[in-house]
Amino acid sequence: MNDSHVSRLKGSVRLIDLPQIRDPRGDLTFVEGGNHIPFDIRRVYYLYNVPVDAERGGHAHRDLEQIVFALSGSFRMRIDDGETKSEYWLRDPRKGLYISRMIWREMDSFSQGAVCMVLASHRYDEADYYRDYDEFLAAVRGRG
């Protein structure tokens, strides 16, 4: 592993902190496109009622960027850029995990009642997905 690869991974996946307004009646956090996140939001979706033993994700995107939040509960994000693997536990609704293009992601270990919200840079397009890990690896290594 070389230094340029490490810096590419760090720029491709990072935690983003959102502002928090504290109030005795409850806290408020907000997201502003173009201010808190590095892309215009084209799609928002969320996962809920996920069985605790389920796995989600298992793909990468050619062009799409995302920020993933645990709005309630917790889950694990396993991240892979083709050379380096890392994992993040999401459990704080003020912290989102930014994932750039060409990063393989898998999600598991959902707590009971977990809610995952995703902000995406593009609308849904099946052609943007790598769903086969070997095809993803070939593309990352310049053979795909």
Automatic annotation (TrEMBL):
SUPFAM superfamilies with a match to the protein in the record: RmlC-like cupins (SSF51182)
Domain Sugar 3,4-ketoisomerase QdtA cupin stretches: 13-140
Domain of life: Bacteria
Classification via InterPro entries: QdtA_cupin_dom, RmlC-like_jellyroll, RmlC_Cupin_sf
Protein known as: WxcM-like protein
Lineage: Bacteria, Pseudomonadati, Pseudomonadota, Alphaproteobacteria, Rhodobacterales
